[in-house]
Design a protein that fits this description.
Elements: E1 7-10, H1 16-27, E2 31-36, H2 41-54, E3 58-62, H3 68-78, E4 83-86, H4 101-129, E5 132-137, H5 150-169, E6 175-182, H6 188-191, H7 193-201, H8 205-213, H9 225-236, E7 247-250
Parallel strand pairs: 1-2, 1-4, 2-3, 4-5, 5-6, 6-7
The structure holds nicotinamide-adenine-dinucleotide.
Nicotinamide-adenine-dinucleotide (NAD) is lined by residues 12-18, 36-37, 64-66, 87-90, 110-111, 137, 139, 182, 184-185, 187-190.
Length: 257
């Protein structure tokens, strides 16, 4: 399968899942636009490395996904956006009566509102070019809940709902809109939690991963960023032309329980 000639914009892609998705789409020949809120040499170096390794065009564009105008500006600066991957996201854990208002607002802005703004900005170009794919990185928490994650669960359920609505709006067009719902994915953020959790539970690495971190993931294995990238690539393929308005879980069986 080749994505040569397509341009993918991946929000929040200087680490973790977003970076994994960008690498996989570039490996398949897509030009990619990386993004985050920072603007460091390391950010631009990531894009240069992807361009060198895969022989595609890769750019890094700074834009803060908590700011609606900046979200729309990212799509404008990209110029072309055939594949939009709404991935930027943050988390905060607290009981609802103690949930900091600024954290609530930031989670809703970055995890949900940003996808509204980028999708609204990207659709006219997709229509003009006669092809488009919107892939929203939701979560198992877009389908189920956990305590103390009210903002994240609300935002991710919102992403799944918006995915369905926009899929219906574009159903007769050569554009699909879907959401991927990962369970636990081994990103640098998750990896960094392992040593503390090992100390807290006095367990070795494998036991803490299996018995504590992946207690709700029946496979007892993390998903990988490459697997999420592969799922995005599938949704961008011709085989997925009639897949729209739905969710694909990559969660080792979490939501089957
Ligand atoms: P991560 O922290 O490694 O990546 C998040 C990305 O979003 C980073 O590139 C970060 O710079 C970017 N970002 C944060 N705030 C931003 C802002 N204001 N503007 C622009 N970019 C911003 O985490 P991750 O695990 O790779 O998460 C990526 C997505 O996958 C998130 O939406 C997350 O909710 C979702 N997800 C992750 C897991 C998991 O287990 N890791 C599971 C389900 C869903």
């Amino acid at each position: 399968m080749s994505l040569a000639g397509k341009t993918a914009v991946i929000t929040g892609s200087n680490s973790g899942i977003g970076l994994g998705v960008a690498k996989e789409l570039a490996r398949l020949g897509a030009d990619v636009v990386l993004n985050s809120f920072s603007n460091s040499d390391a950010d631009h170096a990531l894009a240069a490395e992807i361009a060198r390794e895969h022989g595609v065009s890769a750019r890094y564009i700074q834009a803060d996904m908590s700011d609606g105008d900046a979200c729309r500006g990212l799509i404008e600066a990209a110029g072309v956006c055939d594949i939009l991957v709404n991935n930027a996201g943050i988390q905060h854990v607290a009981p609802i009566d103690e949930f900091p208002v600024d954290k609530w607002n930031a989670i809703i802005a970055i995890n949900l509102n940003s996808a509204f703004h980028t999708t609204a900005a990207a659709l006219p170009g997709m229509r003009a070019r006669g092809w488009g794919r919107v892939v929203n990185i939701a979560s198992a928490h877009g389908l189920t809940a956990s305590p103390y994650k009210s903002a994240y669960v609300a935002a991710k359920h919102g992403v799944v709902g918006m995915t369905k609505a926009v899929a219906l709006e574009t159903a007769e067009e050569p554009i699909t809109v879907n959401a991927i719902c990962p369970g636990y994915v081994l990103t640098p953020l998750v990896e960094a939690q392992i040593p503390d959790t090992m100390r807290e539970y006095d367990m070795d690495r494998d036991t803490v991963i299996r018995e504590v971190m992946l207690a709700r993931q029946p496979s007892r294995e993390f998903a990988t960023t490459a697997q999420i990238g592969g799922t995005v690539a599938f949704l961008a393929s011709d085989a997925a032309t009639q897949i729209t308005g739905t969710t694909i879980s990559v969660d080792g069986g979490w939501t089957a329980m």
